[in-house]
Design goal:
The complex is a heterodimer. Chain A is mainly alpha-helical. Chain A has 2 domains: 85 residues, Rna Polymerase Sigma Factor, Chain: A (Orthogonal Bundle); 76 residues, Arc Repressor Mutant, subunit A (Orthogonal Bundle). Chain A is built from 7 helices and no strands. In chain A, 43% of the residues are buried. Chain B is of the alpha+beta class. Chain B has 2 domains: 257 residues, no CATH class; 113 residues, Immunoglobulin-like. In chain B, the strands form 4 sheets. In chain B, strands 1, 2, 3, 4, 7, 8, 10, 11 and 14 form a 9-stranded mixed sheet that branches. In chain B, strands 15, 16, 17, 20, 21, 22 and 24 form a 7-stranded antiparallel sheet that branches. The radius of gyration of chain B is 28 Å and the shape is elongated. The chains are: A mainly alpha, B alpha+beta. Chains A and B meet through helix 1, helix 2, helix 4, helix 5 and helix 7 of A and helix 1, helix 2, strand 18, strand 22 and strand 23 of B.
């Protein structure tokens, strides 16, 4: 049987992959590193991709999850800087950028499992069925979890956006080494 | 399974999708290039072209036979369009453009263009009085582009810019229009003025510069139109002002940059979208410079667009509020490039051993704007870590802190940056190849990555 190339549309996959990773660990150099690692692994395993076991995006996200797990293990040796992961934002509460930062800040504060759901659904743009296969859950369970998450996020987003810069967008610790 | 959970996409879902992080172009391009498959196809290229051409031709014939091409493309049908907009570009006069109705049949087969011009005086909502030139145009087909021409600027509206009858106003504001809220705010914002030969050398006038203001209302009930179906293209011919001040590279504060403002108070730098088909993103606007030197502003919404000094800019391209000009705070517009930062390596790296205390990696690089910098040392793909304690940045010693994989510093004064990175013993092997990664993100969120190779 002729195998399908899972990386036939690489740019779109990279965007979904990066969005997934960055929703999990924050937009920045670490997310780029994990994205690169995951993609390099995918290139190595490209020929072994089996379309019967999931879509290319789902396959790639599965690889990224293992990269994230490896990264978490390495953190024991090298501590994270705890420094800037987000840009400082001013009290600008009506722009798309401010809304984006608000949303990301709220997502970053979610419990791991909820953040993973957001990353898979809205970062990687996977369906509930694909998420269920990755997390070994029933599709219905994923849908219910997403529904609860929506309700929770809607409340937090509404509150945060109504009060402008209600969330800590700057992530304290910015500029630990001082302005140079 | 529907991708839209529980029916219509909720606002929460919309926000989560809108906020999804995006990779840098550099990363996306690099990885996409790595994945480029060997080009193979069961159809020869010529066969595919023939097939595509045949299908396209059949579609064109089918549409043309029912008169659907221009009708489908045109949203000007059965429209009475009165187009008015503001224009303030290098002291040009106010132009009011009115577009009359057309039918689908006239769209299909074309109708003669009728243009009349009159002069009138109007008072706008901004309490600005000026002379107005009125034009009435009966569009020829509605399937092309309607261009409102000024002396040194023009506004091109395609047939899909508006979906209903609208009125647009182009108005000139000069330095004399000091009653204008817009002009007053722009002048007040500027702390430093410069001379514009094109404006007769009047510094005050020159600071009110180069604005094309578009306001759009529906003709049916006067409701303000807040978004366009396709971008309006505002072309600014870069005159003596721009040329003269662009040359002042040594004084970046004087460099005029494309901006947008809705109220004359919040003045946002436009992002460069690269070309006429660039992604306008969430802001719905952007600019590019064509090969002939003209500056094109593309917008999916009304507003005031033009060129102005960095000193007047208080909102970055991303929509983030900037610091005050000259404040030296992160986001000082006079120390920003409003685009990706430029990183350059300066000199070579010569690692210095500290014996049992490890080694020092001295490196020098140049950056042309404020940025948040992350420094990492790589051996292959592995980060070997940097000891914060003992590391120097621009001569300042970091006195505490342990091993980190990303060392973060904030660069407030662009220029040449010297760093001496402390690496613990045993991590750098003599003769081995390493790379120092400099990952910079400017106050507007633009990311730039550079690598400095060195030997342990």
């Amino acid at each position: 049987m002729r195998r399908r190339d899972p990386l036939a549309d690489p740019r779109a996959l990279v965007e979904r992959l990066y969005a997934y990773v960055a929703y999990q660990i924050g937009d920045g150099p670490d997310a780029e590193d994990v994205t690169s690692d995951a993609f390099e692994r995918a290139l190595r395993y490209r020929s072994s991709y089996d379309p019967r076991r999931g879509s290319p995006a789902s396959w790639l996200i599965g690889i990224a999850r293992r990269c994230l797990a490896d990264r978490a293990a390495q953190r024991v040796e090298l501590t994270a800087t705890g420094e800037l992961e987000e840009q400082p934002a001013g009290p600008h509460d009506e722009t798309a950028a401010a809304v984006t930062l608000t949303v990301r800040a709220i997502v970053a504060q979610l419990p791991d499992r909820d953040r993973e759901l957001v990353a898979l659904r809205y970062g990687a743009d996977l369906t509930a069925r694909e998420i269920g296969e990755l997390l070994d859950l029933q599709t219905n369970a994923v849908e219910v979890a997403l529904h609860r998450l929506h309700r929770k996020l809607r409340g937090e987003l509404t509150t945060a956006l109504e009060r402008g810069t209600g969330v800590d967008l700057t992530r304290k610790g910015f500029g630990t080494a001082g302005g140079m | 399974m529907s991708r839209r959970f529980f029916g219509r996409e909720s606002e929460t879902e919309h926000l989560l999708r809108m906020a999804r992080p995006r990779p840098t172009d550099e990363l996306a391009d690099r990885l996409a290039h790595r994945a480029a498959p060997p080009a193979r196809s069961r159809l020869r290229p010529s066969s595919r072209l023939v097939l595509a051409g045949t299908v396209t031709a059949l579609m064109v014939v089918a549409l043309a036979s029912v008169g659907g091409i221009s009708y489908a493309a045109s949203t000007f049908s059965q429209v009475v369009q009165q187009v008015t907009s503001h224009a303030t570009y290098m002291g040009h006069r106010m132009v009011l453009l009115t577009q009359s109705s057309q039918s689908a049949a006239r769209s299909q087969y074309g109708a003669p263009t009728t243009t009349t011009s009159t002069t009138a005086t109007v008072t706008t909502a901004g309490n600005t009085t000026g002379t107005v030139t009125t034009q009435t145009i009966s569009p020829t087909s509605g399937k092309g582009t309607t261009t409102i021409k000024l002396s040194n600027a023009s506004v091109a509206l395609t047939s899909t810019t508006f979906t209903q009858a609208v009125s647009v106003v182009i108005q000139q504001l000069t330095g004399a229009d000091s009653s204008s809220t817009l002009v007053k705010n722009l002048v007040a914002t500027l702390t430093k003025k410069f001379t514009d030969a094109a404006a007769g050398g009047d510094a005050a006038k020159s600071t009110t510069i180069k604005l094309v203001t578009i306001t759009v209302d529906t003709t049916s009930n006067g409701t303000a139109v807040t978004s366009f179906g396709s971008p309006a293209d505002i072309t600014l011919n870069l005159g003596s002002f721009y040329r003269a001040n662009s040359a002042k590279a040594g004084n970046p504060a004087l460099t005029p940059i494309p901006v947008v403002t809705q109220d004359g108070v919040a003045i946002r730098a436009l992002k460069n979208v690269g070309g006429p088909n660039g992604d306008l993103g969430a802001s719905g606007d952007g600019y590019y410079v064509a090969s002939d030197g003209t500056l094109h502003v593309l917008t999916l919404h009304p507003g005031s667009f033009g060129l102005i000094s960095k000193l007047a800019v208080n909102v970055g391209q991303s929509g983030r509020t900037l610091a005050k000009p000259g404040s030296l705070e992160f986001g000082d517009p006079t120390l920003m490039q409003f685009g990706k930062a430029t990183l350059k390596q300066v000199g070579d790296v010569s690692v210095r051993s500290l014996g049992s205390n490890g080694a020092v990696v001295p490196a020098t690089f140049f950056i042309n704007e404020q940025a948040s910098i992350h420094l990492s040392i790589f051996k292959g793909k592995q980060k070997i870590g940097i000891m914060k304690k003992g590391t120097r940045v621009r001569g300042r010693v970091i006195h505490s802190g342990g091993l980190v994989k990303n060392l973060h510093v904030t660069i407030l004064r662009p220029g040449t940056i010297k760093v001496q990175l402390h690496v613990p013993a045993g991590r750098l092997v003599p003769g081995q190849k390493y790379r120092l990664r400099v990952w910079a993100i400017d106050p507007d969120g633009n990311k730039t990555v550079g690598y400095i190779p060195f030997t342990g």
